[in-house]
Amino acid sequence: MPEGPEIWRAADKISQAVAGEEIIDLFFAFDELKPFEESLKGQKVSSVTPRGKAIITAFDNDLNLYSHNQLYGKWLISKTPEEPDTNRSLRVAIRTAKGSAFLYSASEVEMLKDTEVSDHPYIKKLGPDVVHPETTYEQVLQRYKDDNFKNRKLATLLLDQGFLSGVGNYLRSEIMFCAKVDPDYRPKDCTDEQIEALAHYSVELSRRSYKTGGITTEPELVEALKREGSSRKEYRHYAYGRTGNPCYKCGKDIVEMKTGGRKIYYCENRQKSG
Length: 274
Known about the structure:
- The chain is built from ten helices and ten strands.
- Helix 4 crosses helix 7 and helix 6 crosses helix 7.
- By secondary structure, the protein is α+β, with helices and mostly antiparallel strands.
- The chain is globular and about 60 Å long.
- The mean pLDDT is 95.
């Protein structure tokens, strides 16, 4: 499932393609949305806003398209009205004279009025968005210190969009690796320094991933590994997906474990030695 950085980049691309442009054609695959095809023609997309792992595409007539990619949804962009070559199932098509945006394979697509957006069941439960430029370190730190979350295992908590929105499977491994925190810990098990590190890296790594197209490792390490001939897969992350490969900080092998049916990656020497 796409995480916050990927959703923000998708929103950027949709905005660049269709924002501010008059809609010349609109398609919805779902019957309940068909009536909006004609009523939205001639309107303009006023904004495209990431909300956790969802996107709100606002039109200038008090209507908003809510879309959540879930596991398989994906937005594709074209400079022409022609659909991209794909075997995916088309759910939404927004065509303008400047460009077109196509949503494929998503199962959660709704139309909301302006007054309904903040009360949407998914949106109203979201915690602070770690990618949003207005989210501060202090806000994130307070989430880690909040008594409502202190007894929950971090490996599970970091996937809860009501805790911090935008963090997903690869970011949780990377955040705990950089903060030197045992994946089995709860916030109450962490030292003050670890809590502060968790808050810091929740923001830093999420925004780094957004800016770099999915890379969480620091630029200096990336450049050093590139000079050695490493592939993007090898230098993209510190721990995620690197089972059996040496830790970039201590040289010990990265290991994996399953929690909640999903894998988490960590360095035993770095994160469990204490």
